[in-house]
Automatic annotation (TrEMBL):
The lineage of its organism: Bacteria, Pseudomonadati, Pseudomonadota, Gammaproteobacteria, Lysobacterales. Its cofactor is Zn(2+). It comes from Ahniella affigens. Its EC number is 3.5.4.2. Belongs to the metallo-dependent hydrolases superfamily. Adenosine and AMP deaminases family. Adenine deaminase type 2 subfamily. Residues 15-335 form the Adenosine deaminase domain. The active site is at E203 (proton donor). It is an enzyme of class 3 (hydrolase). This is Adenine deaminase.
Length: 342
């Protein structure tokens, strides 16, 4: 029998925010098969087990190929609702009290699905998550960086009727060879529309891509950013400006950024005062939701209860909620920690 330590139990119960979750990456194999059946789609894998067995990745691209194939079962508004609700239930069980969800409209509009079908399904799930689970959330529209900036402009135009449902834009998919500068104009347009900006940078790509995200895209958070440690001037910039990094430890191991979780630089970054947060990225593919990421990271890096508290506080600090909501989340964290003597 596994003994749950006091530290593990404290970490599991911590109120936390998740800021780096691709909602299409929460699609579990069981739900992929269920939706394929509902929509009359034949998958190229004979069973849930065969599909899961294919989740052996060597790098980001090897994952993306299978991730886009999995998302092809999403057709109706109800499909997007069901996917998001399944995620919100898992998040609530992990004491995620606020989540900011990435979604990839181009993955769906390329297949002839209207952007409204995607957004309406997600928005309906957000309302249900708040009412039934007490989880608040926001949506971040990500542009696929392997596609052109023109395509991103087209996507932003399609999203304009739904802007009240979207808090910001992001940049994901194949990083190397697609630097932030490629999307300078569309990010400027999105910011002019009042949207926040984030971007994946320094997952596999060099520190130069993090500089580009900061200085050209003017992002308010860096997604991943772990390669920043190779550039001391960049590290100082991140520390001095409290620029948040949404780090995804189990993802980094699954995609071979680190061989072992114990090699991860999150502990070092945290100790130096970088505003690092822990997130699940694509939990259905990478072997764990929030608490799995939190617990395994705390254990592998020998972090303390105070470190875990700081990580949760960072997640609220880095979130895009208003000042009152942030203060309420920080208070919940303070109350929880006081009750546990941390
Ligand atoms: O980890 C990721 N990196 C880049 N693009 C992605 N799209 C889903 N997950 C990821
Ligand atoms: Zn990601």
């Amino acid at each position: 029998m596994t003994q749950i330590t006091a530290l593990e139990s404290f970490v599991r119960g911590l109120p936390k925010a998740e800021l780096h979750i691709h909602i299409e990456g929460s699609l579990e194999p069981e739900l992929i098969f269920q939706l394929a059946k509902r929509n009359g789609i034949t998958l190229s894998y004979p069973s849930v087990e065969a599909l899961r067995a294919a989740y052996a990745f060597t790098d980001l691209q090897s994952f993306l190929d299978i991730y886009y194939a999995g998302a092809s079962v999403l057709i109706t508004e109800q499909d997007f609702y069901d996917m998001a609700m399944a995620y919100f239930r898992r998040a609530a069980a992990d004491q995620v009290i606020h989540a900011e969800l990435f979604f990839d409209p181009q993955t769906h509009t390329e297949r002839g699905i209207a952007i409204g079908t995607v957004i309406n399904g997600l928005v309906r799930a957000q309302a249900a998550a708040k009412a039934e689970l007490g989880v608040t959330s926001a949506l971040i529209l990500c542009f696929l960086r392997h596609l052109s900036e023109d395509d991103a402009f087209k996507t932003l135009a399609e999203a304009e009727p739904f802007l009240q449902h979207i808090v910001g834009v992001g940049l994901d998919s194949s990083e190397v060879g697609h630097p932030p500068e490629k999307f300078a104009r569309v990010f400027a347009k999105a910011r002019a529309l009042g949207l926040r900006a984030v971007a994946h940078a320094g997952e596999e790509g060099p520190p130069a891509y993090v500089w580009g995200a900061l200085d050209v895209l003017h992002v308010q958070r860096i997604d991943h950013g772990v390669q920043s440690i190779r550039d001391e001037q960049l590290m100082q910039r991140l520390i001095d400006t409290r620029m948040p990094l949404t780090v995804c430890p189990l993802s980094n191991v699954k995609l071979c950024v680190y061989k072992h979780l114990a090699d991860h630089n999150l502990g070092q970054m945290l100790a130096r005062g970088v505003c690092v947060t822990i997130n699940s990225d694509d939990p259905a593919y990478f072997g764990g939701y929030m608490n799995q990421n939190f617990v395994e990271t705390v254990m592998a890096l020998n972090l303390t209860a105070a470190d875990a508290r700081q990580l949760a506080a960072n997640s609220f600090e880095a979130s895009f909620v208003d000042a009152d909501a942030r203060a309420a989340m920080m208070q919940r964290l303070a109350d929880y920690c006081a009750a546990h003597g941390v």
